[in-house]
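Task: fold both queries, return tokens.
Query 1:
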Amino acid sequence: MRNFVLSVTRNVNVTVDYISSPEVAFLQSIEARFRRSATKLVFRFLGPNDVDPSTNQTYDSLLKNLTFIRTFASGIIVPKSYIWPVDANLYLLPSTSVVLDAHKEGLEVFASEFYNDVPFSFSYSYDPVAEYLQFVDNGNFAVDGVISDFPITPSAAIDCFAHLGKNASKQVDLLVISQNGASGDFPGCTDLAYSKAIEDGVDVLDCPVQMTGDGTLFCLGSINLIDSTNVAQTSFSNLTTTIPEISQGSGIFTFNLSWSDIQSLKPVISSPQSEYTLFRNPRFKNAGKFLTLSEFLVMAKNASSLHGVLIGIENAAYLAEQGFGVTDAVLNALSIAGYDKQTAQTVMIQSSNSSVLMKFKGKTNYKLVYQVDEDIGGAQSGTIDDIKRFASAVVISKDSVFPENTAFLTSVTDVVPRLQAANLSVFVQTFSNEFTSQAWDFFSDATVEINSFYAGGSINGVITDFPKTSNRYRRNRCLNQGSKTPGYMSPVQPGNLLTLVTPAYLPPAEAPNPYLTEADVAEPPLPSVAAKSPTSSPSGTATSPTSPNGQPKVAACVIVPLMAVLLAIYLLF
């Protein structure tokens, strides 16, 4: 190996900047040859308990003698855990003094073992840019370089994001809307998730409204409590039922419990990528408390950094048939909170039902947002005209902008430009940090994905469960550079990566997503709120309705058939 290295460096057509090795004796043997050369020798540390064969010392032992390392090397490569160790649960521990100690000896430090598609510390919220910044922008020290399988990410982290500061100005007009607060870090729709979203710089804080059995409006990402609470492990588990109008499977629904019942439940953090064993912030998986809509509005109103709030309403027609007037209750809550008489914060009402938005149309100056609840490949002109009658913005899926085939981008649709041509803002959902939620084209980096949808897809806003990532993106110094934009801040080209796949391994072609039609959007008006139907007690048994005299109505249902039987016998005989 020594002879090979020396022969390569003698080639005048070859420039060798660095030579690294984990063997002390090898670097010592060539040190004299490169003493006056521009080529730098770098000693590579392996695992702490691994042994260097030439000195018979562990690398942990050699790390304690950097003065010795300096005699034959000008730098060291260390695994990132040597600098920022993690505990058994994958949370960051305090940094070591390795970088400062090495710099004191005149050694450069290069950190290794960075991978975007391998789980790393939960402290980074699955954001690889955040991990790199921890090594170059932590206020105490900075490594001199990193070794990565995904060079696009550290290049952007160092050049575009390092040392931005919390008050860096926005470079682009991209609205950041939360999904259940910062639900990537805390259980969704809890006080902690909402506080984190505000801290992380979200523009619009969202509250998907649900209704309890006693008529309390509160924020929760799903009407099915099983999705975001521990209700299935409680005494309420016997309330499981199936309601085809709401969902295909069974559930325990919010309107089957009182607000006090729901307050007794533990929140459960969402982990949409758990099938890949990617779980979110397990240390806080049951932390926080749920908020009523009124409490949410108070919190939002006290957050001066917020641009506005978004209230999501689903299943309104079914709830009205059960005696719950959710739309009127939302209007009343917003009025009581003073949102109908202020202009400091925008109020958005979002629904996948046009009938809900028509209910709000003309009654308020709230911004109405129509959510398309399926992947679409386009929209008919008449459909867009219909949407304009009741909404000023549309929420679509990522696949409706850049269609995918087995996680490869295949093309770009005309959905965004056509909606925007009709003066409809376009918000896209859902942007998550976990690399398995992203197409291969984005190099397992959430920032690359966001940049591609903004710079390449021209969207107006993102809906995200990690607001910090999107907020940081729009402040980076590499935006608005025109022809000087670095390659690592250029949007990916849909379909380009797929062309590199060997023909034999290409995925089979898929049918294009359907067009959104007028029939998909048009709905009859919301039904009137029915008289409230019998509710279920926490034990799961229905409370029998009573007649005006206080007797259960079910008794009459038994007496009437009995009288009919007696009359039939009398007529026969």
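Query 1 returned. Query 2:
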Amino acid sequence: MAMSLPHQIGAISGSPLAADSGSASSDAPPSTSVSAVWRSPLTTNLRVSVQSNGTDADRVSPSPPLSPVHGGVRPDLSVAAQALMTPPFTTDDASEREYALGGSRAEEEGKGVPVYVMMPLDSVTWNHTVNRKKAMNASLQALKSAGVEGIMMDVWWGLVEAEKPGEYNWGGYSELLEMAKKHGLKVQAVMSFHQCGGNVGDSCTIPLPKWAVEEIEKDPDLAYTDQWGRRNHEYISLGCDTLPVLKGRTPVQCYSDFMRSFRDTFTHLLGNTIVEIQVGMGPAGELRYPSYPEANGTWRFPGIGAFQCYDKYMISSLQAAADAYGKPEWGTTGPTDAGQYNNWPEDTNFFRKEGGGWNSQYGEFFLSWYSQMLLDHGERILKSASGIFGNEGVKISVKVAGIHWHYGTRSHAPELTAGYYNTRFRDGYLPIAHMLARHNAVFNFTCIEMRDHEQPQDALCAPEKLVRQVAMAAQEARVPLAGENALPRYDETAHEQILRASALEVDGDSVEMCAFTYLRMNPDLFHPENWRKFVSFVKKMREGRDAQKCWEQVEREAEHFVHVTQPLVQEAAVALMH
């Protein structure tokens, strides 16, 4: 019996990274065929109970007195052709789609927000082909028919430059980009310099390039390190950004060479099919430290996480900063009274609201250094990306994590450990916005779909307040704001929240997002009821918050769209089965 179309489409995700379209192995082969090689020049609301021995809470800040220990929609919705009803936006609508440099488009009332959809993480195989090509083709046709503006795809460093430094195999991405172009979909290409696997929603494992991993094995301090000596291999430590530790190149040079090869390979698609380059800057592609790693149960929501500054390169920088500050004793280690990954702020001496080390002279020194290191990292990579893509007609964007838990506390501990110096008394997102503005980059923020009351209130979660703070920072810095949902959501409540957040009123002005990217294309999205709601959501986003039609009217139009396109879709479904 033939599978239904949603099941066929479902075949493209939720499995380990395949070696080819017919297998599902996440192990990289010892060698791969090179078809498009570019060589660079040599040059539930559960609080975690944590046992305490009393030594931390009884101590007095500032740190560090102790040293750390090192060591009933039918298959038709899958490929429906909305062009029969209302024409989708085309390149002729570029003026409506261009990211407005102030982030505020109140004067362009009713233009709406374009919706992109994230592709499965394993869209390209280890053999450099498109994973499950027929299902992918049908899915892209479905997205286009629903009025989606385009797709977002991870371009994995660990896949493209897997075997040898300076050799890039773009084969699978060439094919996928041509498929997007054929269907008239725009592309947000993510330069993914991080490992896939170990974060929320990671359905496959793609490590860093083999040769980079070999260098980390030789020098473990190339990996982010916590105070207990635990290494994190998701992303190269920013402490060695400018040191030639990767086969004679610095990490930033490696990222630059990768982006330059991408530009040279796909120059014919830049500015028309490829409209945005999102530059990965940390774990999960986000500008942050890997302070809350889920792998092996190290961290669980809503723990405060842990500082990641204990590799020798970060400590060397910290010591230099402490010497310059006139407090050399502060440079030997980071805070030692900041608790563990799954503590809450009040469990720790450093983050507690009364007399916490975060609000001391030492705390201000350390947190300023820690957050500035992250900003400098972003600045270095953005400077390179701007030089490479600056004249190619594409936007550059950076993703920032929506760390909303314990947002209602004074210290905002989880944000601090991630590198965002945001507290009750300090705005940690405005410096990020200013840094992005200097390079005309888009501020891409997550957790747009969340509401405060949906989250554990004892953890003082406040995603809505956080999103508003970020929107205000973007407005002040005059940087475009874009959004993503942090977790998969298919319900109308989440859709309505995204619609609301996509055009917030801030100081009398409407801060409208320049784009929204929906996480993620998977089997659940093509479930009949979910797909019907998604089509309505896309239509509403396109029409804009001020559209006169009510949500129910949009729902009726979506249902009509499903009905009238059924014959064409059934024909496409039959073709997909062969």
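Both queries returned. Flag for query 2: The mean pLDDT is 82.
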